[in-house]
Amino acid sequence: MLKFLTSRFRDREDAAEIAQEAWLRMHRLEYPQQLSNPKAYLFQMASNLGVDRARRHALEQRVNREEMRDLAEGLPSAERAVAAEESIELIRAALQDLPADCRQAFVLHRGRDMSYPEIAAQLGVSTSMVEKYIARALRHLRDSLSA
């Protein structure tokens, strides 16, 4: 599987992380014995995870390019700077409302770009629990910021 992923996505470390995540997800299936072709399912899942990762990376690159373009055009207006500061404070306040583990998982994932398995190992919880923490944090932030 690692050879397959490396040939598709070119980065051996990313391929290894994708393979590990696919393997973990395969083991979390409720009824894996019902799969007619487990190997094909595993490879398709890994391929989908790789495509998702590539899309996320492309989006991050686009956002970074836009930020660099904005910086090159000059400093933001005073109004935008104040609005950005207010947004940051709202996000900080919303994060403080979360339980410590949930907040830490979110910060490690979004702030330090750690994978779910890495976060799970650091927090001493399952990868599934990390997924729940991240989902809870995102819901909480969405609700807090839309209010």
Strand-residue proportion: under 5%
Give Rg in angstroms. 19 Å
Structural category: mainly alpha
- Point out poorly predicted stretches: none
Integer average pLDDT: 88
Q: What is the string of helix and strand elements?
A: HHHHHHH
Indicate how many domains the architecture comprises.
2
Gap between N and C termini: 45 Å
State the helix count.
7
By DSSP, the count of extended strands is: 0
Give the fraction of residues assigned to helices.
Answer: over 70%
User: Major sheet: size, sense and barrel closure?
Assistant: none
Form type: globular
Describe the structure.
With 147 residues, this protein is mostly helical. It folds into two domains: 1-74, no CATH class; 79-147, Orthogonal Bundle (Arc Repressor Mutant, subunit A). The protein has seven helices and no strands. It has helices spanning 2-9, 12-27, 38-72, 78-96, 100-111, 116-123, 127-146. Helix 1 (2-9) packs across helix 2 (12-27) and helix 6 (116-123) packs across helix 7. The relative contact order is 0.09. The model has no long low-confidence stretch (mean pLDDT 88).
